[in-house]
């Protein structure tokens, strides 16, 4: 029986790792990190900051390779089939390694059997935002309005089965309200619809939420993490407002399943050291994303537990996609 591991315990165990591994003949060539999303998004931005800071630590170039498609499955399949020598890595997330196997009937990779977890490197809390003019300045007021108008309020997401969709579903389940889901084909069109008042609310990354709220285009009601985000220090968490749940994404490095354990440990150590870089920390801060570290064993335990957390949200939705 697996002992449950809390998100806060693992992501909060972000003490930087000691460099205790004996010297390895690794890496002996450039390291490629595959990002399964388009360039310019939050995942890509923080991964590039990590890669730049890791290069001098490992003594080799660390390059980012964007391979978007199929909700992350294109990039995942590429890395799963790559040579397992530790030089090709993948940016895993809640979507690729927890949600996808729960909602897709046919998935081209197995998130546990095909990959070796290496380390978490980022926690991306979501912000619950509402359109300007909705007239609700607090989470309680927003939920009260939803209860008074069952099915009338709408919330956007960047796709059916996305973490943005499921984060909202988690709050809706916990609050016992009824709202209409309006999925878009990506984050950008969803943000545009919200600002244009075509939808009423959505969960988005904290960085864009701060940017859109700066001139009053949206109102940020809550942060989906256990602690407040430095980028939005005045915004309370959902937990502070009585909702005992998190709404966030995470990013981690994984490699092909047969990757040497010693190489995985070396990458985890290098990632932790890279995250000490002031340049990397500033990029993370501006994105509203928190840098974290951990061992391969901690990463595996966290991914397993996170899949169970999302399963509890997905089961009542009876959500299955081709």
TrEMBL record:
Asked whether the UniProt record includes NADP among its keywords, one would answer no
- Entry annotated with the keyword Metal-binding: no
Signal peptide extent:
1-25
Gene3D superfamilies named in the record: Bordetella uptake gene, domain 1, Periplasmic binding protein-like II
Query: Which keywords describe this protein according to UniProt?
Result: Receptor, Signal
Pfam families, A to Z: TctC
- Lineage, top-rank taxon, reads Bacteria
Q: What protein family is recorded? A: Belongs to the UPF0065 (bug) family.
| Protein name per the record | Tripartite-type tricarboxylate transporter, receptor component TctC
């Amino acid at each position: 029986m697996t002992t449950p591991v809390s998100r806060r315990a693992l992501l909060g165990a972000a003490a930087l790792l000691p460099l205790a591994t004996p010297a390895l003949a690794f890496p002996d060539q450039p390291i490629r990190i595959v990002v399964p999303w388009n360039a310019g998004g939050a995942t890509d931005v923080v991964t590039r900051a990590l890669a730049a800071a890791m290069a001098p630590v490992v003594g080799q170039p660390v390059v980012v390779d964007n391979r978007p498609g199929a909700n992350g499955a294109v990039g995942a399949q590429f890395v799963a089939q790559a040579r397992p020598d530790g030089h090709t890595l993948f940016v895993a997330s809640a979507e690729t390694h927890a949600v996808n196997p729960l909602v897709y009937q046919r998935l081209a990779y197995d998130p546990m059997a095909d990959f070796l977890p290496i380390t978490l490197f980022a926690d991306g809390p979501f912000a619950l935002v509402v359109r300007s003019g909705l007239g609700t300045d607090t989470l309680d007021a927003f939920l009260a309005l939803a209860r008074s108008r069952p099915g009338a309020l709408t919330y956007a997401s960047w796709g059916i089965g996305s973490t943005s969709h499921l984060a909202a579903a988690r709050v809706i389940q916990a609050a016992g309200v009824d709202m209409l889901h309006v999925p878009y084909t990506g984050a950008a069109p969803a943000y545009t619809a919200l600002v244009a008042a075509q939808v009423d609310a959505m969960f988005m990354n904290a960085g864009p939420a701060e940017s859109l709220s700066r001139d009053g285009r949206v109102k940020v009601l809550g942060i989906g993490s256990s602690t407040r985000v430095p980028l939005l220090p005045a915004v309370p968490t959902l937990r502070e407002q009585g909702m005992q749940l998190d709404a966030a994404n995470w990013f981690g490095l994984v490699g092909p399943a047969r990757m040497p354990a010693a190489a995985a440990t070396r990458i985890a150590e290098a990632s932790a050291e890279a995250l000490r870089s002031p340049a990397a920390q500033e990029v993370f801060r501006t994105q509203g994303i928190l840098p974290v570290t951990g061992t391969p064993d901690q990463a595996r335990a966290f991914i397993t537990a996170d899949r169970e957390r999302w399963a509890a949200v997905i089961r009542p939705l009876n959500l299955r996609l081709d």
